[in-house]
Specification:
37% helix; Rossmann fold
Length: 337
């Protein structure tokens, strides 16, 4: 992704592995500060995932893969490293997908660093293909709503929901992006908007509860969101607030798309009812950064994700093409031959 540091524009990734250290753009600091977080142990990699130094399902998977490679280099017990990393965040399927691949590779005597690098390249390449397939759905002049950050920061490069947007922009299509702020951690306002600035894509940040207003007024042509886990029936877990956006889009006859690589599909789950939903600390709702915004004595609930039923989803944009939720069985057969 393109990152402007001072007056210099660099191409870089959200997470990479260098001299045995897992390096990450610290997403907690953006957009006011640009810092690189260095994780030198399994525990530090786990901290980076759990505390959202890195977030976004594919990027979490890549970070976990590098974490296993690091443990292998340090001759640490791979089962111990596996357990530490898998107990960080429960919802995103890419975490478990990456860890299983790495554990199997290590047990087979393969070079874990090479396998982790190959995994990262593969995921980023798949997301670029998502962009190529999804770009065809975007017409010149489209106004697109997205929720949370499903961009390059959430993948390493390209993004999932933003990959079609970036491809359309680079092809010269005139597009506009509505960026939901995404409370309580403001991943849209802080991260998606930051990426839109880096790419030079016209956009506006809106409060989460303003999306329906713009849909009702005919100012949204399509919705594209990412995913953290997709069940076999097409139900999708994504950042909290996605479900209500899907309902409002449905009521206003606006196509609602999900963009995700195959690593996000969990074919072991029959429906979204089986997806574990992470609930995070109440302080994330009660505070904005260090500033308390709720009265002393008030408490909060903080589910990090919700589940959008398949019936509200027009299509799932994958690296293999665009599939209706009813076609996931076909997709599974194509994957497994």
């Amino acid at each position: 992704m393109r990152v402007k540091i001072g007056e210099e524009i660099k191409e870089m990734r959200a997470v990479w592995f260098e001299d045995g250290v897992v390096k990450l753009i610290d997403q907690r600091r953006l957009p006011s500060e640009f810092e690189i977080f260095e994780a030198r142990t399994t525990e530090e990699v786990a901290y980076a995932i759990k505390e959202m130094v890195v977030r976004g399902a594919p990027a979490i998977g890549i970070t976990a893969a590098y974490g296993m490679a690091q443990a292998w280099l340090q001759k640490r017990n791979e089962d111990e490293a596996f357990e530490i990393l898998r107990n960080t965040r429960p919802t995103a399927h890419d975490l478990f997908y990456a860890l299983e691949k790495m554990k199997m590779a290590i047990k087979n005597g393969e070079d874990a660093v090479k396998i982790a690098e190959k995994y990262a390249e593969d995921i980023i390449g798949r997301c670029e293909k998502i962009g190529e397939h999804g770009e065809k759905l975007i017409k010149d002049g489209y106004r697109i709503l997205t929720h949370c950050n499903a961009g390059a920061l959430a993948v390493g490069d390209w993004g999932t929901a933003t990959a079609p947007i970036r491809k359309a922009h680079r092809k010269g299509k005139k597009i506009f992006v509505w960026v939901d702020e995404t409370r309580p951690r403001l991943q849209g306002a802080r991260l998606t908007a930051w990426e839109m600035v880096q790419e030079g894509i016209e956009h506006a940040i809106i409060a989460d509860n303003a999306a329906g207003f713009f849909m009702q007024r005919g100012e949204v042509d399509m919705v594209i969101v990412g995913a953290d886990r997709i069940a076999s029936n097409g139900d999708v877990a994504n950042k909290i607030g996605t479900y209500e956006k899907a309902i409002v889009a449905h009521e206003n006859d606006i196509p609602f798309y999900v963009a995700a690589p195959i690593s996000t599909f969990d074919f072991s789950l029959k429906s979204g009812d089986e997806i574990p939903i992470e609930e995070r600390r109440e302080e994330e709702v009660l505070f904005c950064r260090e500033c308390r915004i709720a009265p002393q004595g008030s408490h909060a609930r903080n589910p990090a994700f919700d589940v959008t039923p398949a019936g509200y989803i027009k299509g799932i944009i994958t690296e293999m093409g665009v599939y209706k939720p009813t076609e996931i069985g076909k997709l599974k057969r194509e994957i497994h031959g």
